[in-house]
Amino acid sequence: MDRLPQTADVLIVGAGPVGLALATKLAAAGIDAVLVDQAAEGANTSRAAVVHARTLEVLREIDAADELVQRGLLITRFTVRDRDRTLLTVGFDDLPTDFPFTLLVPQNITEEVLLARLKASGGRVLRPHRLAGISQDAEGVTAVMADGQEIRAAYAVGTDGMHSTVRDHTGIPFTGDTYAQSFVLADVRMDWPLGDDEIQLCFAPEGVAVVAPLPGGRYRIVATQDDAPARPGIGDVQRLLDARGPQAHPGKVTEVVWSSRFRVHHRLADHYRSGRLLLAGDAAHVHSPAGGQGMNTGIQDALVLGGRLVTTLRDGRDVLDEYESLRRPVAEQVVAFTHRMTKIATVGNSPLRSVRNTALRALDWLPAVHRTMAMNLSELALDPERAQAG
Question: Model-level pTM?
Answer without folding.
Answer: 0.92
